[in-house]
Amino acid sequence: MNLHGVKAIYLFEMARTWRTLMQSIASPVISTSLYFVVFGSAIGSRMVEIDGISYGAFIIPGLIMLMLLNESISNASFGIYMPKFTGTIYEVLSAPISPLEIVAGYVGAAASKSIILGLLILATSRLFVDFSIAHPVAMIGFLALTAVTFSLFGFIIGVWADGFEKLQIIPMMIVTPLTFLGGTFYSVNMLPPVWQTVTLFNPVVYLVSGFRWSFYGVADVHLAVSLGMTLVFMLVCVGLITWIFKTGYRLRT
Amino acid sequence: MSDIIAIDGLSKTYESGFTALRDVNLHIRKGEIFALLGPNGAGKTTLISIVCGIVNPGPGTVLVDGCDIRRDYRAARSRIGLVPQELSTDAFETVWATVNFSRGLFGKPADPAYVEKVLRDLSLWDKRKDKIMALSGGMKRRVMIAKALAHEPAILFLDEPTAGVDVELRRDMWNLVRGLRERGVTIILTTHYIEEAEEMADRVGVISGGEIILVEHTRTLMEKLGRKELRLQLAAPLEAIPAGLSDLNLVLEGDGHELVYGFDARHDQADVAGLLRRLGEQGIEFRDLRTRESSLEDIFVDLVHNRRTGD
């Protein structure tokens, strides 16, 4: 096991975060705070409670999840794409390091950043809304599981992308719409029956629902289903990454 | 001297269908400086990239210090340092950070004293806190070498290390290469500056069309395939080679004012003495004479040309 190698990649990626503190940390925190101001305080004050939870508090898990998905994908895809773009990937490929260790370094760093951001946003939201966390251990667990899963997904996008445009396509065109339509700002139960059924095909619903359960003990879908769906998506990503390293897809010719 | 790299029957065909290597057999000896020469597209970089793990190998075996690059890739790669042709660097990192990153990536614990030595050897110590983007091209090239040496490799691949660098850096680089060889590091280099290979390399390999067409000691190669030339400036022009000298390898140039005598580098100067005596007997006088020995570059060009034309 090349632990020094994993550590080198991890610290290298984290160093980029500290170097670009404004872009990496401050920007997502500020933009999520704006959501709280607009949806939580301004509009939320005129909304009725959902499942006995004030609207401002209700959207907290969804907003954290919105940021978590985007940042996990963005951090991990950028992390592996940049060495490909600059050509420094030769060093990683020629190092005595296994695919698992490479992924642990890049995905570990991307997930760490997302988790730090998630916790920062959680702390920031406290400034705007009063809330409590019913299952803090489960909340951290969901946060970590989602961050790792979507960092794996981001790693796949970073390997697949052959231009900066492609790095943005999937987060912008698929993930963000799915997150907005995945119960971030509303309960699935508020939708007409037909749309409730359609919504269940959106994987983000399960993430938001599970995460919201850890806060308030209420969920749109059963906790086990949320957890199961997240794990299934994670396994799909692991399978794809295994295939990437086995074939050398867009990494080794 | 034992082999540190043993390549046997290695072929490589890319997905595009292009065959870059054909049944390559090449053994590099421990501690030597080996120059791999070949025209553009000959397969040099593919060969190096396969040994280093950047390109998937095709059929055949590659052993690095006895370790198979597929089965025992960790052990094989940990012995190798690579300086690629392209200046691929992390622009926003400092010199110190990027060299330490390379050391860690190759599984070595931090050793600030060793990294300091590498940076001092490469005249980079004063630049250690600078971001790479602020360095000149030559300095970036030094950083690439420092990164390759950061994990104390037993084998160093230098792919066109002096391409586009100034004279001073080139001299420093070769001094460094000599120093590394003295410490037992095996060096494999590709270069377009064939005179450098002639001066530096213990052995030379020539690759063309994906095949190794020759591996030889540099000195032996020069002796075997090198040619000498004697050029005589004639006092009076000749219309043709006199019949009495037709058995010699003579050519008239410069409208009959210059007589060129080509002979094998292995032959001794007696041939020249014999020619001069026979010229005197024929009443041919000359005003000046000079000799020229073919360089490794001439030999290389001949070899590749003959290969292409099927001679």
In total, the number of strands of chain B is 14
Shape of chain A: globular
C-alpha termini separation of chain B: 34 Å
Q: Spans of chain A with pLDDT under 50 lasting ≥5 residues?
A: none
Largest interface: A-B, 26 and 35 residues
Residues in helices of chain B, as a percent range: 25-40%
What is the total domain count of chain B?
2
Gyration radius of chain B, to the nearest Å?
24 Å
Please, how many helices of chain B?
Answer: 10
Q: What's the average pLDDT of chain A? A: 89
CATH-defined architecture of the largest domain in chain B: 3-Layer(aba) Sandwich
- CATH-assigned homologous superfamily of the largest domain in chain B: P-loop containing nucleotide triphosphate hydrolases
The biggest sheet of chain A, with number of strands, parallel, antiparallel or mixed sense and barrel status, is:
none
CATH class of the largest domain in chain B: Alpha Beta
Give the helix level of chain A as a range of percent: over 70%
Order of the strands making up the biggest sheet of chain B: 6-7-8-3-9-10
Structural class of chain B: alpha/beta
Explain what this protein looks like in three dimensions.
The complex is a heterodimer of chains A (253) and B (311). Chain A is built from 10 helices and no strands. With 253 residues, chain A is mostly helical. Chain A has one domain. The longest helix of chain A is centred in the first third of the chain and has 32 residues, at 55-86. Chain B is an alpha/beta fold and 311 residues long. Chain B folds into 2 domains: 3-222, Rossmann fold (3-Layer(aba) Sandwich); 227-293, Alpha-Beta Plaits, CATH 3.30.70. Chain B contains 10 helices and 14 strands. The chains are: A mainly alpha (253), B alpha/beta (311).
Task: List the topology elements.
The complex is a heterodimer of chains A (253) and B (311).
Chain A lengths: L2 H17 L1 H23 L11 H32 L2 H5 L5 H27 L10 H25 L3 H17 L12 H7 L3 H14 L6 H25 L6
Helix pairs in contact in A: 1-2, 1-5, 2-3, 2-5, 3-5, 3-6, 3-7, 3-9, 5-6, 6-9, 6-10, 9-10
Chain B lengths: L2 E11 L5 E11 L3 E5 L6 H9 L8 E4 L2 E2 L4 H6 L1 E4 L11 H11 L6 H10 L15 H13 L5 E5 L7 H16 L3 E5 L3 H7 L2 E6 L2 E7 H8 L1 E8 L15 E4 L4 E7 L5 H12 L4 E8 L2 H14 L2
Helix pairs in contact in B: 3-5
